[in-house]
Amino acid sequence: MLQIISGLSRDVRQYLVITFSYWTFTISDGALRMLVVLYFHQLGYSPLEVAMLFVLYEFFGIVTNLIGGWLAARLGLNVTMHLGLLLQVIALSMLLVDPQWLSVAYVMVAQALSGIAKDLNKMSAKSSIKMLVADDQQSTLYRWIA
User: Fold this and answer.
1) How far is CA 70 from CA 19, 87, 117, in A?
2) Where are the transmembrane segments (predicted)?
3) Helix (H) or strand (E) holding 8
4) Global pTM?
5) What is the pLDDT of residues 27-77, one digit of tens each?
């Protein structure tokens, strides 16, 4: 398997690394949100109260989208992708505490970090893939992601 991967072109290997990072992030982010929903539902919170837990997740996702491009231009896409992955690990780790610590405010902070991480990772992955393809070969990009 490693021999097959090492025989691929640099661009294809980069594509695979970026795709694997994005998929890994997506799975962990989905798991985090699902666990939060199920946990607070089990505690007896109403659907609206559970939905309110994600307000900071969405808000900080919007804020991150607003400044993400500037941040990537200053730090680089590789750094912003790794920063997004690190923030997701921190957000997931925040939920490893004693269940008595899992107050609504505490979980909302973890969700806020996860929202920042999501948009840093998403922006970095999409931009990195776009940079792998020359401007005159954009149809190749659509074949790669299809």
Assistant:
1) 23, 18, 16
2) 20-40, 52-72
3) none
4) 0.83
5) 988 888 898 899 899 999 999 989 988 999 999 999 999 999 899 999 999
14, 92, 139 from 146: Cα distances, Å: 17, 30, 11
3-state secondary structure 57-85: HHHHHHHHHHHHHHHHHHHCHHHHHHHHH
Helices (H) and strands (E) in the chain, counts: 7, 0
CA distances (Å), 96 to each of 38, 90, 106, 122, in order?
Answer: 15, 10, 12, 25
The alpha carbon dihedral of 140, 144, 145, 146 has a sign of positive
Residue whose C-alpha is closest to residue 44's, from 113, 106, 104: 104
How distant, in Å, are the alpha carbons of 17, 20, 88 from that of 7?
15, 18, 32
Q: At what angle do helices 138-145 and 104-132 cross, to 10 degrees?
A: 130
Per-residue pLDDT, 88: 92
Cβ neighbours for 133, distance < 8 A, ≥ 6 positions apart: 11, 140, 141, 144
Q: So what's the pLDDT on residue 55?
A: 92
